[in-house]
Specification:
This protein is of the alpha+beta class and 326 residues long. The protein has seven helices and 17 strands.
Amino acid sequence: GADMPLGESYATVSAQRDRLARLGQQATYAGAADTAFQATINDALADAMDRVAGDLGDGKTFEREGTVNLVAPRTGTDGVVTLNDETFTSAAATFTTWSTAARDALNVGSPDGVLRVNTITSETALELIQKYARATATAQAYSLARDEYALTSEAWFLRRVWNKQTARPIELVTLEAELDREGERYRTGEPFRCAVVAPIGTEAGTTAKVRLRVFPFPDLAYELGYTYQAVPGLPGAAGAHATDMVTHPHLSHLFAAAAAAQFLLLTGETELADAWEAKYRSFLPAAKRTDQGRSPVRVVLGSNRNLLPGGEGGYLGLRDPRTISL
């Protein structure tokens, strides 16, 4: 367990893993044949996340920012609908160019009625979720709008939504409350309310995502910003939120020291663990003085448990709530 210099690059989870492997006299994490050894490394990294989170905050979540682009409606005057049939056609349309998403909203010949789209099958045809219940008609004026938009897959807990072009906030409400208020009327304008909708399968070939429904239907193309809480997971090859720690200029060395101290403690190298604990304590004040506003993404770090005994200041002690910026 020789001491490793902190001048190395630890800006990825894999680099942190390899560094701990070298502390354990292995060349790399992947090259270690002992799965228990690898598990100890992962435990140390997970514990380090809790340690850093606990020392810098009081709610182990990352607050991150995303963007969603709303689209203007597609309109036409040659819509064709058939009684008791799900198919809607428009010879002049370019449906697939405009959208490939399910749940788009179609309004045909009525200012209020909303017909939900099941699939867009071609540039000139789409299938409705339910059969058309009105009389067969041709040359119908129509408007096809989208009020549901996929968010990043981890954005389960939205905190704030706003129109980035007008800087106006958008009220977050429950879907039930909005449906009670608006029903399924077709009305367009600048959205001023929104609600989170559960995933509905795949969208444009991607995996299921949380969706944002806006009210009313967008009349123009808008760009919305949103912040959300992302719950850190265990460090993983797929890029769990340990990445947020190891890539942050003020947290990478702090995280590295915490991980080394915890790994050496778990492997019985208590003397070396104490040395890395001293390094960790020396890096902690700088992390707490992190400059505000380094980027639009803000992070709140904390922990909801104390994994090892020792109280305040111990290897996994919790203290000093703090908000920092990435």
